[in-house]
Specification:
single chain, 303 residues, Farnesyl Diphosphate Synthase, 1% strand
Length: 303
């Protein structure tokens, strides 16, 4: 069994290679825009969402390899890369002065610091729409599954998903909100894109309805656990370690799990969610080991 760290490094290389090839040729008149897109896309990062797409696909795929599998694997990589593009767009916009007003991301100046606010906004817009172009031209997926995936990702990214969660996050700054409202906020702001990464991988593998139920429980659990871990890291991590300004949530008076439940209760809740995620995968037997390792990594990572 490949270690989770080795697997993640392998996926990172595949995704970076995909981006370098995809953005190899651009219109010279648009070079500044595409430079800004590449700047944030290739700045590093753990590629958690692509990792979850490909890991879910591998765990859910049944039977032996056949002639169509190479095309489906290419399609899975395209979907994985598209989700990273959407995530990166969200980070570019999230860092803007009108939102979180951050100066550092992944250890380098934020996009608007490097390229100006106007180009940063357009780079984010372009990454979001380019992501759906990448998915739409994927081969080896049935039209029905392709439409489902496009719909799922659009829902997870928009007002009823990530963007809606970001809006609630901004509107909750400086206010006391309940633990239930905080869970709703995090499920949308972060959880939706994590969840759809896992479910898309499973759909690409044509997983059975019974196993999809288990995958959804896993995805919902790690989606919330991921954000709780982020909240904890913002308290305990350092700027150099995190690649962004440590302690920024407290400075902006954001609603977080440590601020509402306390640090130790937050850690206990994150650990419980990991156990729930791992327990949901029994139906997959030993094949689920990769997803189990990823659940533990998500919560116990150091950055």
């Amino acid at each position: 069994m490949t270690s989770v760290v080795s697997y993640m490094e392998e996926v990172q290389k595949k995704v970076d290679h995909f981006f370098k090839n995809h953005f190899l040729k651009t219109d010279p008149k648009l070079e500044r825009l595409f430079e800004a897109m590449r700047y944030s896309l290739l700045a590093g990062g753990k590629r958690i969402r692509p990792v979850l797409v490909l890991a879910s696909y591998e765990v859910c795929r049944e039977g032996t390899l056949d002639s169509g599998d190479s095309k489906r694997e290419e399609a899975a990589l395209s979907v994985a890369a598209a989700l990273e593009m959407i995530h990166t767009y969200s980070l570019i916009h999230d860092d803007l002065p009108a939102m979180d007003n951050d100066d550092l991301r992944r250890g380098q100046p934020t996009n608007h610091k490097a390229f100006g606010e106007s180009i940063a906004i357009l780079a984010g817009d372009s990454l979001l729409t380019e992501a759906f172009f990448v998915i739409a031209r994927s081969q080896g997926i049935s039209p029905q599954i392709l439409l489902e995936i496009v719909g799922d990702i659009a829902l997870a990214s928009g007002g009823f998903g990530m963007a809606g969660g970001q809006a609630i996050d901004l509107l909750s700054e400086g206010k006391k909100i309940s633990a239930e409202d905080l869970e709703y906020l995090h499920q949308h702001k972060t959880g939706c894109l994590i969840e759809v990464s896992v479910s898309c991988g499973a759909k690409l593998a044509s997983v059975s309805p019974e196993k999809m139920k288990a995958i959804r429980i896993y995805a919902e659990s790690i989606g919330l656990a991921f954000q709780i871990a982020d909240d904890i890291l913002d308290v305990e991590g350092g700027t150099a370690e995190l690649g962004k300004t440590a302690g920024s949530d407290a400075k902006k008076d954001k609603a977080t799990y440590p601020s509402i439940l306390g640090l130790e209760k937050s850690k206990t809740l994150a650990a419980a969610l990991v156990e729930k995620a791992v327990g949901s995968l029994q139906t997959f037997g030993s094949k689920a080991e990769l997803l189990k390792q990823l659940a533990h990594f998500i919560v116990y990572r150091k950055a």
